[in-house]
Task: structure prediction
Amino acid sequence: MDLGLILRMFQSVERMRRRERWSRADLAGYQVDSLRRLREFAYAHSPFYRRFHAGRLDRPLGELPVLTKSMVMENFEELVTDRAIRLQDVRSHLAGAGERRLYLGRYRVASTSGSTGRPGLFLFNRAEWADILASFARAHEWAGLNVSLTHRMKMASVASTSPAHMSAMVGQSLRSWWMPALRLAATEPLGDIVDRLNQFQPEMLVAYASMARILAEEQIAGRLRIHPHLVFTSSEVLTEETRRRAEAAWGHAPFNQYAATETGGVAAECAQDRQMHVFEDILIPEVVDEENRPVPAGTYGVRLLVTVLSRWTQPLIRYELNDSLCLGEGISACGKPFVTVGDIQGRTEDTLRLPGRRGAWVEVNPLAFHNVLDTAPASGWQVVEEAEGLQVLLAGVPNGAVEDDVVKALSRALDDLGVAVPRITVRRVQAIPKSAAGKAPLIKSRRSPSS
Result:
């Protein structure tokens, strides 16, 4: 255990607690000052940002260009503010360093999964990593956990165990006498996961949303026998049916948290009002449309832009996250000054473009499938777009015919959206296929871009 890092995390947690009592005006002033200092540092130490923001160094945030992950990787060595950092050395470090070594003796390196292309690499110095840990601790605290060195909590995580993935790195850093941790790969055989959880008996369970639903079904069936005080889901859309199944399994609904490798915690659900609040003292969110114009509260955007206020090693200013979400209207009655997340539909890549009845393409967002398939009598589902139509995979279907009902309900929903309804087939499977990281995405496309 790195006691110094843990103590630094608690200092960051305490600062976050104080900011949660601010007024909206106090928060706005803090954002302005933090953004000014971040930009000044980036322009002084990052050749990329001097070039990328040329002619706009004094312009408002909303007038700056958008930063993508591909830009980060293409301009890696010019973007970072430490001139000793070399991309090839970072890659070599990840390939052979293991969990405990720091790059250049001072940086942790996390990698995105690469599900949307090549992986992105992101660096954190000691202070930045303490803030990352504190963002996850805040999510736990908002759910009702007493986050302190005197409160011991056994935690089990069923996600990725790759040393370079954010969830594994956070678990490794927090593993200590006050938080004994069991990390299980979501790709392991289900029976092995169930056996190890039964032996460990976690007080807190953290899992991909799809994995939480699978484990809830195992608990209801009596094979899994754990009694966690808190259940957290992340990395995937938490559907209402998954929430209901988890509550049926463990007696209380799971808490949803929204995080990314690039940023750490972005938002988390609060026990006081069961709304998800954005960590606006850590980052500035912008929900935007296809042209990167802000959309009003209550309207789904095409993507989320984030400016991370405490990341100076690898500044992320108007960085693009391909998640479709909407912000809530007004501020919650719980007293926190932060905006709320109205809903998260999923990644932009989960939106299917299907031919319309009138010839134009129709964007079908994931929520359209959630509304239909979450009511199906199944423990899990997945929609796969193929050249010849849509294939719906259903896991854990009881005896009896359900296929025709699913096809009819989904056809009606697509027809209501103006889609020229494609051929829909339903196939029963023993388990929903998982990605290499252990996720079970709800929406997949196997169509080639030209089809």
Remarks:
- Residues 24-45 form the longest helix (22 residues).
- The chain has two domains: 3-347, 351-445.
